[in-house]
From TrEMBL:
Highest taxon of source: Bacteria
SMART domains noted in UniProt: Ald_Xan_dh_C
Pfam family of the protein (one): Ald_Xan_dh_C
Residues annotated as domain Aldehyde oxidase/xanthine dehydrogenase a/b hammerhead: 19-128
Protein name: Xanthine dehydrogenase family protein molybdopterin-binding subunit
């Protein structure tokens, strides 16, 4: 019987977080630190013809003003013939987007740096820019891995008895984590230490080694706590290299913290998408063809793709399918991954179109999904390692009361309010990446565990402590887990919902290796009660090593270690996905049922009830897991009803670059949310049997809300967010 895994555990870092003991990047105290403040361009494209920093340099407390004219070199010097590119800050006079860093003012205090930043004057020679996706669709380039169609989609669509065709739009969305991005850098000779808000310390180390031309082993990146990131810190952002360069030039520590507005051009965003969907079916509801053409924007200097239709090909059993993705360059900063990247945007279009098809066929939306249920992976033909989506549908419909739904739009009311019920499905990968962890078990019955993963909020500290305590037979308070430092064993970025499966498998592996070593030590005694038992048949529990089948056969671990002169045992374990996984397709699935209430006079709406059912393998910590899923639902509500980054295409500038104008859900927007797990026993996906859930919880929500809004009002809103003026 598991002691911890599968049980509700409060956060091991919870007290540190609420008492302020947990240090976020900008809170580290470094003596003699100088403060940097970034100056941003005010044009979208062109050249800086002059930059006047004299007044800023003469302002009180200013140490130096860095511009492209005097900044230290970052990255390789561009080849003379090469077209100008933007990959490192302050390296040329070229401007590639509005809000690009053009100067860094460093001063003795933050206030002095900020004041002087306003005194830097730049003049530009502008060039025509384009920031509107619609105008560059003709120049969109296909993403290679997304090109192969299945069957004959065009032919099947032509001959299908029932067709729906529609176009869906999603605006740019921005991550707005609580903690602003920040870095503190200091050099000791040739060695750099940098505190950075990142989801991948090793990624930042590699990036800085390239940019600063120093060996990676000379760079230590530290990031113990991250106050939310959701993808905004997956790729190295431009400010760590800028901060490290300034610290090297000035020979003193430098600290740079983004303002909320600087975050809007400093770390990427969910790209704008336009999707053209055509579904063809026979009268019984069986899909004959799916054609989903997706476009999204990227920057002029980097071809980023969020894989909009990647997972969608695996959702429904349909012999004829084409889901090309094309990206088009705009004069904006590069987009990046944002919670449930690609999948939530793609599923908004696909699941809205499925709802439209259900009305065209007069078939219940849930029934339509069951008719097209994929029993095996439609892409590879491989069986699923586990798939409990059918059970998610059944349980959700029952809990929600779906059978009482009158399918007719505008037919259900609560007083004068229109009531709508909508549903959708969600899908995400069940991925495992190579990862390593170090476990030290001491004779006094304590253990320390380390891996250079990150904790952007889902509870990595807690779940890794649970896994170590479980397999070492210790109490939670006897285990200390540390993360977020390049001095620790390498782990993948925290993204893609793969941390528990990857790093957790490494922690488990190290603990089991220690168990086997202790068994060897115990069996050095001829009279050992454990002699002849294989390592996989013993377990550690409360300071004893015992036989799983006969717990009376046991030894005292401290006694064995004392007798063999062993103070501690340290094991670094590298975990990789098993070859067995290759024979299967592995995905996490879910279903969402949503109720909305709409005021027909005002067009205002509330999401009054959400039931989300998730199948993602084994649930290690239900308390944290429900919290993750609720968070996904809340974000889905924000994406559906509120979030939009407005661009002034005349200037190429983000207009809503603050929390006053970029709307996110607040407490009053959130009503009843119930999250339910259907546990899957999956021994193939990884040794812990877990699948990712952090992204999955958001995937179907915007579509389910849009479908509920149609049911309530009879109006099909195909461009997010769904605002009152679109309904009136």
């Amino acid at each position: 019987m598991a002691r911890y895994l599968g049980k509700e555990m409060t956060r091991v870092d919870g007290i540190a977080k609420v008492t302020g003991k947990a240090k976020y990047t900008a809170e580290f105290q470094v003596p003699h630190v100088a403060y940097g403040f970034i100056v941003l361009s005010t044009v979208a494209k062109g050249r800086i013809t002059a930059i006047d920093a004299r007044e800023a340099e003469n302002a009180a407390g200013v140490v130096r003003v860095f511009t492209h004219l005097n900044a230290g070199r970052l990255g390789k010097a561009p080849a003379a013939s090469a077209p100008p590119q933007w990959s490192w800050p302050l390296q040329s006079d070229r401007v590639f987007f509005n809000g690009q860093p053009i100067a860094l003012v460093v001063a003795e205090t933050y206030e002095q740096a900020r004041h002087a930043a306003r005194l830097v004057k730049a003049t530009y020679q502008t060039e025509p820019h384009v920031t509107e996706l619609q105008t560059v669709l003709g120049r969109a380039m296909p993403i290679p891995q997304n090109t192969l169609p299945r069957g004959d989609p065009a032919g099947a669509l032509k001959s299908a008895e029932v067709k729906v065709e529609a176009e869906y739009h999603i605006p740019i969305n921005h991550h707005n984590p609580m903690e602003p991005h920040a870095a503190i850098a200091f050099w000791e000779g040739e060695n750099l230490t940098i505190f950075d808000k990142t989801q991948n310390v090793y990624g930042v180390q590699k990036h800085l080694a390239e940019g600063l031309a120093v060996p990676a082993e000379n760079i230590r990146v530290v990031s113990p706590f991250v106050g939310g990131a959701f993808g905004s810190s997956l790729k190295p952002n431009y400010y760590p290299s800028l901060t490290a360069m300034a610290a090297r030039e000035l020979r003193r520590p430098v600290k740079v913290v983004f303002t909320r507005t600087q975050m809007f051009t400093g770390h990427g965003y969910r790209p704008q998408t336009i999707q053209k969907v055509a579904l063809g079916a026979d009268r019984s509801g069986k899909l004959q063809a799916i054609v989903q053409e997706a476009f999204h924007n990227t920057s002029s200097f980097e071809a980023f793709s969020d894989n909009t239709t990647g997972f969608l090909k695996q959702v429904y059993a349909c012999a004829n399918l084409d889901m090309p993705l094309k990206v088009a360059a705009t004069d904006l900063p590069t987009p990046t991954w944002m919670r449930a990247p690609g999948a939530v945007s793609g599923m908004f279009a696909l699941e809205s179109a499925m709802d439209e098809l259900s009305y065209a066929l007069k078939i219940d939306p849930l029934q339509l999904r069951l008719i097209n249920y994929a029993e095996v992976d439609p892409v590879s033909g491989k069986p699923f390692s586990s798939k409990a989506l059918r059970e998610c549908y059944r349980l959700g419909a029952e809990k929600f009361g779906w059978k009482n739904r009158n399918p007719e739009p505008r037919s259900m009311r609560d007083g004068k309010l229109l009531v709508g019920w909508g549903m959708a499905s969600s899908v995400w990968g069940a991925m495992q990446m190579p990862a390593s962890a170090k476990v030290t078990y001491r004779a006094d019955g304590t253990a320390s565990v380390a891996s250079a993963t990150s904790d952007i909020g889902p509870g990595t500290y807690t779940v890794m402590t649970m896994i170590a305590a479980e397999f070492l037979g210790l109490r939670m308070d006897q285990v200390k887990f540390e993360l977020g430092d390049t001095r620790q064993p390498q782990a993948p970025a925290q993204g893609g919902s793969w941390t528990t499966s990857s790093v957790g498998s490494a922690v488990r592996g190290a603990a089991l290796t220690i168990t086997a070593k202790l068994l060897d030590l115990a069996n050095r005694e001829a009279a050992s009660p454990l002699s002849g038992i294989a390592a996989e048949n013993v377990e550690m529990l409360d300071g004893r090593l015992r036989s799983k089948s006969d717990p009376s056969r046991a030894v005292d671990i401290a006694e064995v270690m004392r007798r063999t002169g062993t103070n501690e045992i340290t094991e670094v374990f590298n975990s990789t996905p098993s070859p067995e996984r290759e024979k299967y397709a592995s995905l996490a699935h879910g279903a969402q049922f949503v109720e909305v209430k709409v005021d027909p006079d005002l067009g205002t709406m509330r999401v009054t009830r959400v039931i989300e059912i998730t199948a993602c393998g084994k649930i290690l910590n239900p308390l944290a897991s429900h919290s993750q899923e609720i968070g996904g639902v809340v974000w889905g509500i924000g994406m559906a009803l509120e979030e939009a980054t407005e661009v002034d295409h005349r200037t190429g500038r983000f207009m809503t670059a603050n929390l006053q104008h970029y709307h996110v859900p607040v407490n009053a927007d959130i009503h009843a949310i119930e999250t339910i797990f259907v546990e899957e026993d999956d021994t193939i996906v990884n040794p812990l049997g877990v699948k990712g859930m952090g992204e999955l919880g958001m995937v179907g929500i915007p579509a389910a809300i849009a479908n509920a809004v149609y049911h309530a009002t009879g109006k099909r809103i195909r461009d997010l967010p769904i605002t009152p003026e679109k309904l009136l």
